[in-house]
């Protein structure tokens, strides 16, 4: 005889909105879901190694996210769990207060589902997490554990951060939706800084609907984050999701580095463009020459300069517990003069202003999130050059899973939009998601 509990259980990899619809029909399922996720996490952790800390309390709370487990990147403060920042310096550190975004999640009824592995202070020194599609490959970074946990079907939603490419790239490598909102959309109070001019709080999920719904609940401002700027109000119906644009107008952005991408990634991109045209979108090539030439130097100058100010004292006090990656970043930042830093900041503002004009007439742009599949090995988390322009500009960007490469690892597409036009960008991404109609499934980790 079939177990009725099994009939009501959601499939592995169910999205946030799908779960909320099921929970509305079945409160028992809502009560049990986080416990089931915890059992899955404990069973997979010796192979996946996505978590620094798993929760002890997964009791359901009331609210619009009631019953939804949300994994938290381990540079985001939690008052009831260690926050190690991916560093042995903070191995047993438990913050006094939750980060703003964690407190908001608790108030929304979400279950705070442990702490996911981050590279050291969200920079390049990797943690132990493996790619769930092939453990011989990196999951990307710095939000390694969050991307892997969503990809493996352990949680439907996870928080990450991005300062170069730390949401968009691992989302592509793991075959999930990654979303970096506009700069300042989600307050960073309680998030360990790497570069305050560039740090973003972002999201991982399985569907565009899920990150759109999460943003509608998490966008806000806080006096402790001077870079915060509230987004224009928008609402997402939890039963209907985000409404896709009709016949969107999309700019195709390739950049000079296009020639260095893997052939399978190029083929997937061209196929997606052709499929979008067939479905009624208007697509035109968009040249962004100055952004292409200037973004990498500008973003790295800003990042290294600000990181040197933040971490110089730390690496001096704890040289034996600081990686060579972090020490090198500090040394690089100290070589930049104040004039060089200010010039890079001015370049950032100039490029941001120019992009507003260049994208006018387009709903969004479509480009690549990475050069191809996740690199082999765990020592290198991947090249962020396709992500950096949109981080520098602070504009919304979305990764969509779109196919597999020759090694059987996921490949993605990236949709980016105008600054503070997050809702419109998500509507364009939802349209593209429906046209691609691609679901990578859950890897057998």
UniProtKB/TrEMBL annotation:
Task: Give the matching Pfam families.
Answer: Amidase (PF01425)
Annotated Amidase domain residues: 35-426
Q: Name one GO molecular function term.
A: catalytic activity
InterPro entries with a match to the protein in the record = Amidase (IPR000120), Amidase_dom (IPR023631), AS_sf (IPR036928)
Record family assignment: Belongs to the amidase family.
**What name is this protein filed under?**
Amidase
Where does this protein come from, organism-wise?
A: Bradyrhizobium erythrophlei
Which lineage ranks, top first, belong to the organism behind this chain? Bacteria, Pseudomonadati, Pseudomonadota, Alphaproteobacteria, Hyphomicrobiales
